[in-house]
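Researcher: Here's my situation. A collaborator sent me these components and asked whether they could plausibly form a single complex. I don't have experimental data yet, so a predicted model of the whole assembly would be a useful starting point for our discussion.
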Amino acid sequence: MTDGTPDHVKIFDTTLRDGEQSPGISLNKPEKVEIAQQLARLGVDVIEAGFPITSPGDFEAVQAIAREVEGPVICALARTAVQDIDAAWNAVRDAERPRIHTFLATSDIHIQHKLRTTREDVKGQARAAVAHARQYTDDVEFSPEDGSRSDVEFMAEVVQIALDEGATTINVPDTVGYTMPHEYAAMFTRLYELVPGLRDVTVSVHCHDDLGLAVANSLAGVTAGARQVECAVNGIGERAGNASLEEIVMLLRTRAANLGLDTNINTREIARTSRLVSRLTGYPVQPNKAIVGKNAFAHESGIHQDGVLKERLTYEIMDATTIGLETNSIVLGKHSGRHALRAALEELGYQVEGAALNTAFKRFKDLADKKKKVTALDLDALVSDEMREAPAAFRLEWFNVEASSSRTPLAEVAVRMPGGELAEGSFTGDGPVDAFFSALNAAVGHEARLKEYHVSAVTGGRDALGETSVLLELNGVTASGQGVSTDILEASGRAYLRALSNALANSPVAEAEHHLRSEDSEPAAETTS
Ligand code: KIV
Ligand code: ZN
């Protein structure tokens, strides 16, 4: 900051790539597009949409995001192999502003044991990869993987090669979450000395949270000169996760006067983005999580409550409205009409017309019959639940679950199959939910195994909408699904059937068949990252 204007730090969101590599997360194409649309509303500068070589499904999701999402740069990840880079390019080429991100490890531990090659070969691969990517686009990012554990002199040589070949962003990851803030900052200072050309490109940080330092390390990198932060919503990502987007953004915003830095993020979209990512990934947000945890702005002790009532600043460093937490300006009731609903949905960023508006209106009316005040949180949950209804999926038609403390629970269900026919099933179980899920398995003829099941309330109050998330495994494929309803069993059944539909859609047989049918998809390969 030289003239009092804060320096701009770019937010590179990797929720859909590194975040999606979290165990148990498997988002389907419409879910990824929905998250990407919300990230665009949030105002991120770059969306890393996926790693297209890893599967035809990932390729197609990145391609859909590149074609449908306007605003941010759309980026795809690639190792240095030609087919990786070609797949990345083919997936993002239709974006307004496409980027290829290629990476290669520079630490000796990775070079010797993972890549089983030499430093010379790494230099050659980096040169060839950046040169190849630059044939397609002038927006190329290069990452020396495990940068924080690399010999900085050698890493500098590789970074210089990447710059010579035309890389426009250099990202130095703390891949294993090992570094400390002062070390990471010193590494950047040394790298700038060794590679003066870094001052002419964007330098980026990418930190993992294995020691709980991802945000602190990202800040250290930024204070040392980096102007792009790679992060993920709710901090999801490999192992302990990535730096959390909301934490780094609110840190820069809250301490702007001190740091002289800011981002383009529309912070009022933070709470909603966090809820969407949590809902679709099935990863709950811990209550005490900074910024987006449900207690982040709650004051429990009498002394704190008293202080805040007298003057908010006594115990609050941020205003909850800044992150969009009180979006309850929208309140509808049972007398609200279609027009009011459409206006409320527009305010939330949904353009819902025709048949979709009719369905949304019906679900809104059902809810308004049971719940006095329908808020923005309720509408958001209902509409995204409806949008999740894929055409070729199983649908819950009706269910009957009998449970009491004296009898074994029994469930009977009817499911509309993707071909239109009705399938019925019944089963007993250890509890009502167990019986219900077993009956759904019986109806659809698949033996899925439940791995995780979460229930939460969208708002407070006994009449709140319930939100459920299911993670299951079918024939070695793990998939998740979510459901929303005032009836928790109905929400559970919807979630279970969506997870089953996703598992079948993601099964290798389905992917292979789809791949054969698809004209422009790319070859699948193993991921190493
Ligand atoms: O953590 C890491 O090193 C990565 C790279 C692919 C940037 O995710
Ligand atoms: Zn990473």
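Model: Some features of this prediction you could bring to your collaborator: Residues 488-506 form the longest helix (19 residues). The longest strand covers residues 449-457.
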